[in-house]
Write a structure and sequence with these properties.
Helices cover 49% and strands 8% of the residues. With 72 residues, the chain is mainly α. The chain starts with a helix and ends with a strand.
Amino acid sequence: MAWRTRLLELGLHEIPVDGEIGIAATSMSNFHPDPPDRLITATALLSGAALLTGDKQILEWSGKVRRINANR
């Protein structure tokens, strides 16, 4: 838990998963069926945050989430 405390001190902002995110996660068209990926992506979409990921399926999805490729 020390790493989490340190990240919060550095400005990390945690976003709780709520019903709005859950609904958005189930409503994303042409997205693969993995529930955690859906929740992570829906959270980024609704919060306007960029999503840092190396996940090929998220990176190639046609949706309008801002993505940063972690593989580069």
